[in-house]
Request: fold
Amino acid sequence: MSSEDLKDTDTEARFEFKKEEKSAFETEKGLTEETVRVISEDKDEPEWMLERRLRALEQFQQMPMPTDWPGQPDLSEVDVAEIVPYIRPDIETRGGAESWEDLPDEIKDTFDKLGIPEAEKNALSGVGAQYESEIVYQNMQERWEEKGVIFMDMDKAVREHPELVREHFMTKCVPPSDNKFAALHGAVWSGGSFVYVPEDTTVEMPIQAYFRMNSEGMGQFEHTLIIAEDNAEVHYIEGCSAPQYAEFNLHSGGVEVFVGENAHVQYSTVQNWSKNTYNLNTKRAIVEADGTMEWVSGSMGSKATMLYPATILKGPGATDNHITIAFAGDGQNIDTGAKVYHNAPNTSSTIESKSISKDGGRTNYRGLVHISDGAENSKTNVECDALMFDNESTSDTMPYMEIQESKVDVAHEATVGKIGDEDVFYLQSRGLDDDDAKQMIVAGFIEPITEELPIEYAVELNRLIELEMEGSLG
Amino acid sequence: MAVLEISNLHAEVAEDGGETILEGVDLEVESGDIHALMGPNGSGKSTTAKIIAGHPAYEVTEGEVLIHLEDDEFGEDFEIPEDMRTWELLDLEPNERAALGVFLGFQYPAEIEGVTMVNFLRTALNAKLEEREELFEEDEEASEDEEEDAGYETSPMEGPADDGEVSVAAFQQILQEKMEQLDMDEKFANRYLNAGFSGGEKKQNEVLQAAVLEPSIAVLDEIDSGLDIDRLQDVSKGINALRDEQGAGILQITHYQRILDYVEPDHVHVMLDGEIAMSGGPELAEKLEDKGYDWVREEVYSAA
Reply:
């Protein structure tokens, strides 16, 4: 469909489709087999996907809640018995509120402060459609299709590309057995993105979920599956720094990335969850020989986050780069980091982690670098920097290193510091007020992240942090 | 024209039982003049400089630091009301002091990663101009003008609005010009503020910042320390330009006569034990070079 055709289409009708009410279903509280069957049926899924969901459910029910990690966020409020109601709104209203008016003031306020236009606000908060962006998205969609690139909603991909999905979906990258929340995700997942880039194909512009968020919504349990074949190159951007409002308090997404030989994938995300949310995700990439995986992630908002994007360097010469940033304010516990498994010779990885805490917030870097026996001439460099605003805030660094090979090059460096009075005074003496001086220091601190992002994300990220620092977000 | 007037300044370290450092400093610096403030380590020179700029580590127990401005201080378009020509700096925040034309050149400038020189200096210049407007606004007007932060005027898809009086393009021009005057490599503009700068580069950068921010009074704290002879000449050239081209008053804090061969002072003051022990013309610096600070001490004590 060309953009001309698109304009001719009855707008009302196009969006009606998205608003279409799914048949309501009643379920008991607590996650049961019946619930999972209803979800699968509701999505017209093939039998094999239902089976996968049921298997994941079984695993979820058997696994205990993770509670024994040193210093991990308290998950006692995450009530599994209440999980079912989390699912219904996801399906019926696609994870958002019914209308703009229904959103809490703090969320509306943030959109206003970010200076996001009305149409985008509606789209981003999941309450409405966004015509302009839809056009932009459709235009790009056409260009991608010509190259054989697939970018669509994950639910749709199950129906339209069953062979690709069946092979890759929660099989070898993130199996449901990985952890309790991956299992939960496998049972009740809904929505998300599917990206497929064929061999020898470069997608020049970043593929952004931002543009189609209205149509698919950002659910509680969205799944992203990215497959880059040999020599392919793609940059995928998930979400954005605008707040993601969830009526319910558990978000458990899943991301799987397959990087073919000599392929290059960058996955970037800056996510800002409403402050009642427990954000518990599993993200992992498998990289073949000479491939490169890059994770750029910003974790903001949420009551507690546990997120450790992982990369398995499977083929010789594979490379991984992680850049992560975490920001924790009052009452927040952001536990995040990175995992890298060097399973082949000549592999290399870098992890650059930045965290900021203020007003009693707590950040924790939790990382693992594993170098297998035989992964000779592998290199890793881990750098963790923590910046604290006050004496009430906390920051911990827990880097685990499992090195089973002797011919390797391992470096780790960690710095923890309070925002320096001398630095602030220096900037003040040049004319910046106290707040602007601190803002500038933080903007500089997170610069490695913003430099990796397209300008609109970088601007939003800086603006968001500025608002967090003023304490003007809810 | 501006005059910085320090009188009877007493100060101590701002913590419980903090040590007394200044014991009654009197000093007057007029724009267009170069003053050298000399003295041994620990005599209170740097403390004086930091107090002028508003460093929070010191508590003033007595005395005042005034700045007197003439009505044309900030250009012809900026009229200063009669009753707003004298300000007590000690009542103001460091950025407000900067807005009134006070600049401190640091001996050990902070290194700020991730913030480019060009971005930093433009932000500082705009912040200074904005703060100046605010300081001279009548009180009622100020409260009316206080708007709520409404976010960027443009969509985030277009990037930030080019806020501030001096635009990015206009500022690039200004910065380039100033760097050429100081023989600085143009690469400086895109480096992170002082990060990884050599000692000499940092000092040169302090002078560059003064050149861009155009202060009325520049206090330069041991800006000559750790410089080789070539860099010393560069920095000195910059300091002279501050005075000759911008009419700034300079308070040059130094240990050594060396920089005074290139930046010729109109007045020289010797500080001992938290006080100005002796003042004179350029010949005083030469005398110190020959006879050392003990000579001053003897002179002062025998006179007392």
